[in-house]
Design goal:
CATH class: Alpha Beta
Order of helices and strands: EHEEEHEE
Helix content: 10-25%
Number of helices: 2
Number of strands: 6
CATH superfamily: Regulatory factor, effector binding domain
Number of domains: 1
Oligomer: single chain
CATH architecture: Alpha-Beta Barrel
Shape: globular
Distance between the termini: 28 Å
């Protein structure tokens, strides 16, 4: 796997949405969000970012707790469902490309953690996944996994 260091990811006017979904429905959820932002009178400008904050594994399924972040065309008023964040930024980040299916996401998360450990670096953020879409709002076959690294030398 190929890793890029010293990446800088920054978005303004970000919609934050926290939810849970079955791991098998993750792609469907992301595509739904991309297609339906106009219902909030917003337009998504760029890729959708998400992080897996919790995972509940059962014998026949896995439920994911997610924060989905989408850069939008303007500021908006927060509600109980969506929160406005003026800015989202990951600096001095390590990134790696992976497939967009759930098993690929977990594998790259573990690979990035191993890479960071081997390089004696220290992560200062969760792993965020950047999901791209084609013009028909269909999720691309690859995502970028990104995590910020501490710049300090102690």
């Amino acid at each position: 796997m190929f890793f890029l260091e010293h990446q800088h990811i920054e978005f303004e006017n970000v919609l934050s949405y926290k939810t849970r979904t079955d791991s098998e429905r993750l792609n469907t959820l992301l595509e739904f969000i991309k297609r339906n932002s106009d219902a909030l009178d917003l337009e998504i400008k760029g890729n959708i970012i998400f992080t897996i904050q919790e995972m509940y594994e059962f014998s026949n399924r896995c439920i994911l707790g997610l924060e989905v972040l989408a850069p939008v065309n303007k500021a908006f008023e927060s509600s109980e469902r969506y929160v406005y964040k003026p800015k989202f930024k990951l600096v001095n980040a390590v990134s790696a490309r992976c497939g967009s299916n759930f098993s690929d996401l977990i594998k790259v998360k573990n690979d990035i953690r191993l890479y960071i450990s081997q390089k004696k670096l220290r992560a200062i953020s969760d792993v965020y996944y950047i999901a791209g879409f084609n013009e028909d709002c269909v999720l691309a076959e690859a995502c970028d996994a990104v995590v910020s690294i501490d710049n300090n030398i102690l």
